[in-house]
Amino acid sequence: MARDHQYYTCIMANKWNTTIYIGVTNDTHYRVYQHKNKLVEGFTSRYNINKLVYYEEYDYIDDAIYREKQLKNWHRRWKINLINKFNPGWKDLSDGWYDQALTCHPEFISGSHNLDNQETLK
Fold first, then answer.
1. How far apart are the C-alpha atoms of 6 and 89, rounded to whole Å?
2. CA-based angle 45:13:40, to the nearest 5?
3. Could you give the C-alpha distances from 23 to 27, 79, 80, 87, 88, in angstroms and in order?
4. CATH for 7-110?
5. Residue 108 in contact with residue 98, Cβ under 8 Å?
6. Which label site among 50, 63, 75, 108 has the fewest CB atoms less than 10 Å from its CB?
């Protein structure tokens, strides 16, 4: 049976890679867009978290949340090692996502994206 959603455990960072944030979403494109544009009040906005540096994909939300909690309990060095293994330059994995998306998805600009059924980053 095909799944309707994929779920993601994501790690985001600020531009200096000194502060990281771990969360879960079912819509990485929109959720990263929210953080890049400070549409979400709180930690990511306060600490300028705007780069997607790591993610894992899951079929079930419970698995993504379990991994999120696991990563949040890791020592900082372990998290850094995980990112370095996957993305040694800490490049923004979302670079280029929004070049065409804004013409294809005007709801990004208007803010009309439906969040009713979206699991949000913690």
1. 26
2. 25
3. 12, 13, 16, 18, 20
4. 3.40.1440.10
5. yes
6. 75
Which pTM was predicted? Answer: 0.79
What is the side-by-side order of every strand in the sheet holding 51-58? Answer: 20-25, 7-13, 51-58
Q: What is the Cα–Cα distance from 23 to 68, expressed in whole angstroms?
A: 6
**pLDDT (tens digit per residue) in 63-116:** 999 999 999 999 999 999 999 999 999 999 999 888 755 555 555 555 544 444
3-state helix, strand, coil in the chain (%, to 5): 40, 15, 45
**pLDDT of 122 higher than 50:** no
Domain boundaries, the chain: 7-110
3-class secondary-structure state, position 88: coil
For 108, the token pair is 């990004």
